[in-house]
């Protein structure tokens, strides 16, 4: 009994230390965001700000068009999300329910494409968008990311767990493929769809490399690229940079706390099937 308590104590102690280690960067960001520029450069650094300067969160909007970056990022994230939902539902339903020649081979090829890193297809993708005249437009930020193979995989695994009896009942009631998808599959796939939506929004929100390559104008610049330009121009003004970073990550943190249960459930369900 004593050994079990000691083991539990050591495990909890290690978890607390790891948790504090993960929380420390966030605390440094938050504390620096409300410091003065002089205090932020002081060494050794102060853990608790001597002078709380919340006006940094207002001043950052005067220095850069942060609201514009937020709107651009939100618009791109929503458009990509709509595209991913549309393509993923159709593709996953086809791979899970329809029987056609080469189905498993095509699906394996799809999964193999997930292993290809972005730098490999960056130049060909850029040349295609350049030929289409989409460089420095919202189309370049949205269209290439409206198909997500991981989302297709996650949905396919879930659809395969839906009992055949429900599809038979829908067919007896006269439902076609699209009606079955909309009235049977979609309502039963809400946890997975929520997970896909969360991952997709997080991915679009944090996207940096691709928008940096395909955008030049400040008017369509997303949040992460805007912060990178701001960091380059105001590299020593850490309070404003941390204030902007805090505002940038705040929506994602709130989103995760509201939907973490659905994320865990969907990952567990996807891992149990094949």
Task: Present the secondary structure layout.
Blueprint: H1 2-33, H2 37-40, H3 56-63, H4 66-97, H5 103-113, H6 118-132, H7 138-142, H8 149-159, H9 164-172, H10 177-188, H11 190-206, H12 209-214, H13 223-233, H14 238-272
Helix pairs in contact: 1-14, 3-14, 4-8, 4-11, 8-14, 11-14, 13-14
What brief labels describe this structure?
single chain, about 270 residues, 14 helices, about 75% helix
Q: Can you characterise this structure?
A:
The chain is 76% helix and 0% strand. The chain has 274 residues and is mostly helical. Helix 1 crosses helix 14 and helix 11 (190-206) packs antiparallel against helix 14. The longest helix has 35 residues, at 238-272. The chain starts with a helix and ends with a helix. The mean pLDDT is 86.
Computed over alpha carbons, the radius of gyration is 24 Å
Judged by helices, strands and strand pairing, the structural class is mainly alpha
* Helical residues, percent: over 70%
- Following the backbone from N to C, one meets helices and strands in this order, namely HHHHHHHHHHHHHH
Helix tally? 14
Strand content: under 5%
The major β-sheet equals:
none
Q: Give the overall shape.
A: globular
> Span from first to last CA?
40 Å
Average pLDDT rating: 86
């Amino acid at each position: 009994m004593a050994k079990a308590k000691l083991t539990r104590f050591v495990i909890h102690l290690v978890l607390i230390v790891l948790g504090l280690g993960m929380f420390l960067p966030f605390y440094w960001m938050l504390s620096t965001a409300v410091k003065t520029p002089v205090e932020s450069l002081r060494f050794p650094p102060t853990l608790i700000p001597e002078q709380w300067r919340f006006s940094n969160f207002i001043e950052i909007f005067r220095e850069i068009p942060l609201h514009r970056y937020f709107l651009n990022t939100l618009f791109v994230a929503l458009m990509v999300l709509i595209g991913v939902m549309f393509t993923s539902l159709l593709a996953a339903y086809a791979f899970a329910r329809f029987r056609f020649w080469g189905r498993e081979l095509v699906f394996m090829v799809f999964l193999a494409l997930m292993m290809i890193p972005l730098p490999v297809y960056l130049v060909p993708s850029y040349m295609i968008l350049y030929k289409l005249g989409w460089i420095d437009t919202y189309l370049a930020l949205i269209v290439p990311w409206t198909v997500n193979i991981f989302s297709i995989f996650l949905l396919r695994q879930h659809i395969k767990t839906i009992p055949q009896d429900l599809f038979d009942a829908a067919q007896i009631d006269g439902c076609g493929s699209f009606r079955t998808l909309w009235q049977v599959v979609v309502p039963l796939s809400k946890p997975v769809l929520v997970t896909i939506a969360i991952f997709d929004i997080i991915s679009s929100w944090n996207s940096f490399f691709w928008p940096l390559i395909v955008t030049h104008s400040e008017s369509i610049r997303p949040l992460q690229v805007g912060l990178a330009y701001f960091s380059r121009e105001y590299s020593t003004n850490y309070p404003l940079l941390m204030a902007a970073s805090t505002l940038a990550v705040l929506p994602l943190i709130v989103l995760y706390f509201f939907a973490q249960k659905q994320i865990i459930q969907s990952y567990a369900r996807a891992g149990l099937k094949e």
